[in-house]
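Any chance you could type out a protein's amino acid sequence plus the matching backbone structure tokens because I've never seen that pairing?

——
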Amino acid sequence: KRMAEMYRKYFDILYSIAKNYEKSQEHIEIKQKLELLREITDDFGQGFVAINQKGEFILWNKAAEEILFEEATYVKLDQWQEHYDLFLDDKVTPLKLEKIPILMSLNGEVVKNFKVFVKNNKIPRGVLLSVDSKPLKYKDGKIFGASGIFKKILD
């Protein structure tokens, strides 16, 4: 119940951020709200990221940094696979761009318990993740972004 309340709060904040960003470029207010949201999500104990409609990260919490050994960076959507080195849970099949959970959610899908293996120069042994993601929508149903929560799992 507590987690559901926290999720509701962060979606309210994300909605407010996106609404303000599209209607005005008041970056200071947006930055303050993002910092507040980051503080809230840092307590989740799981990686949490959010992207806008362009696929740009607008939030990347501390656990995401710790799990992926990386801070949020700008990477063009068509370069995500190459940059992050994402694979299916067989650990050898590259994850196609259209199958990356948060990008699936940007197209309206809710994704639950999707396994992603990440192996790159920052994580040479690799890490298996369980990922949940969902679209972020305005009250009228229009998608303004997507969020994803992930955690390490033992394989």
